[in-house]
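Batch manifest line 346
LIGAND: manganese (II) ion
JOB: complex structure
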Amino acid sequence: MLVVMRHDARDQDIRAVVEAIEAMGYQAHPMPGRQRTTIGVVGNDGPVDGTRLTVLDGVRELLHVTQPYKLVSREWKSEPTVIKLPGGLTIGGDEVQVIAGPCSVEGEAQLLRAAHAVREAGATLLRAGAFKPRSSPYSFQGLGREGLKLLALARRETGLLIVTEVVDPEGMDAVAEVADIIQIGARNMQNYSLLRRAGRAGKPVLLKRGIAATIQELLLAAEYLLAEGNSDVILCERGIRSYDSQTRNLLDLSAIPTVHALSHLPIIADPSHGTGRRDMVPAMARAAVAAGADGLLVEVHPNPEQALSDGAQSLRPEQFERVMGELRPIAEAIGRRIAEPVGARR
Ligand code: PEP
Ligand code: MN
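JOB STATUS: finished
ARTIFACT:
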C-alpha cells in the first residue's frame, strides 16, 4: 500500500504516518517527490487496513498496490529510475549505454584487444566473464580471480567501466571490488541467496531474465535486490527458450515496453544470447534500441573463431563498429542518444 501525502504536509505529519505504519508492524519507506511525499508500506502479506492512517494530518489518500511485486513497480514509483555510474554515465535516462566485450576473459592480449576495439567503436562499458556459468561442467569455466585482475587492468588502460558476472555468494566480494556493475546471469535469476547477497553488495546489478522466466518472475527476482536496499538494478532481456531451433533463444523484444509499463527499472537487451548467431545480432540490436531499450549488451571478440565461449554469436570488431553507427540515428529518432565513452573526443 502507498500513503500519498498532501503537498502541504509537514515533516512532523510524515513522521507521524511512519510511526503509525511501524506501530502496525510494517516497514515504512518515505519517498519524497517533486510535488508530494509518498510513503510505501511493506511487510504485509495481505491487504492492509488503512483506516488508522487516513485520519492522520497531511494524508491525502491511500493507494493499494495490486502487483505481487512492490518496490520495483511503477505504482510504487512513477518516475523512471536513472542509475548513475562513475564518470557521469547514466542508465535509464536519455542515454542508451552499449555494453560490449567478449563472453569470457581468456587472457591479457585477448581482453585488451577487445577492450580497445569496443571503446574505439563507442561502447561505454566492457563486459567479460571471469566466472562463467556453463551448461556443461566440461566447458571452459573462466579464469576466475586471474580474470578479475585482467578486467581491472583493462579498466585502467581504457577507462571503460566493467560489467562482470558473479556466480556464487562466496565470489561476491572479489567481483564487487572490480565490477562497476555486477551481472547475475540467466541461470541464477532465481538463486535467491545470491540475489539477497547482491542486494547488499553496494554496486549496481544487471539481472538477466531466466531461460524460461516470465516477466513477473523477472520483476519478483529484482524485488529481492530492492528489498535488500539496492535500487540500482538493470534488467536484461536475453531471450527465452522456444520450440524453434533456428535461433539459440527467442529474443522477446516486447518485454522492453512491458517492463517499462510495469516497472520504473531500466531494461537493456542482449541480442547476442538472444539469437546465438552473429549474422542476426545487428538487426536485433537495432530493433531493441527502436523498442526503447535503455542499453545493449553485445558480445564482441577480436577473433571469434578462437573464442573459448560463444564465438558463434560474437561480432568481429569491424562489425561492431558498423552497428554502432547504425544505432545512433535510431536512438535520435526516438529522442535518445547513444552514450559516449567517458572522456571520448568524437
Ligand atoms: C553471458 O552473459 O555470457 C551469459 C552466460 O549469459 P546468460 O546468463 O544470459 O546465459
Ligand atoms: Mn556469453
